[in-house]
Design brief:
3 helices
């Protein structure tokens, strides 16, 4: 683990990652409306839709975001972007950190140090380096 090489023993490592929310993981793989916003340049309405598919074997959430740029209530242009997110579950993260020479000091649901709960969307880890890893 690269972070381990850059810290002295006792050094603190803090990072955030997504919490694998069942709401996100179990979304239907159909196109769903997300939101509408006004484009800053054209001042036209943009409708945003998402398609989500979860690959449980690889713990990957595949997202497609569709932006439909409107001009006088007609779709003028459609732009699609994709991203794949790898989720790590809390017990898996505990093991990865331990194997890589870190002790978990605390886990929070946000940067305000709110205790983590099952309905969290993020995990903020505060870790201490215990040993060097080769």
């Amino acid at each position: 683990m690269s972070v381990n090489k850059h810290l002295n023993v006792g050094g603190v490592f803090i990072f955030g990652t997504r919490f694998p929310s069942m709401d996100e993981l179990l979304q239907p793989s159909t196109e769903e409306y997300w939101k509408t916003y006004i484009d800053n340049e054209t001042k036209n309405k943009v409708d945003v839709y998402t398609i989500s598919r979860y690959d449980a074997l690889n713990q990957l959430q595949h997202y497609t975001t569709i932006r439909r740029f409107n001009n006088r209530d007609e779709v003028e242009k459609e732009v699609r972007t994709t991203i794949s997110l790898r989720y790590v579950f809390p017990k898996e993260m505990e093991r990865m950190l331990s194997v890589n020479g870190f002790e978990i000091i605390n886990v929070y649901k946000d940067w305000d140090e709110t205790p983590i709960t099952e309905d969290s969307y993020e995990m903020i880890y505060v870790c201490k380096k215990n040993s060097s890893v080769s």
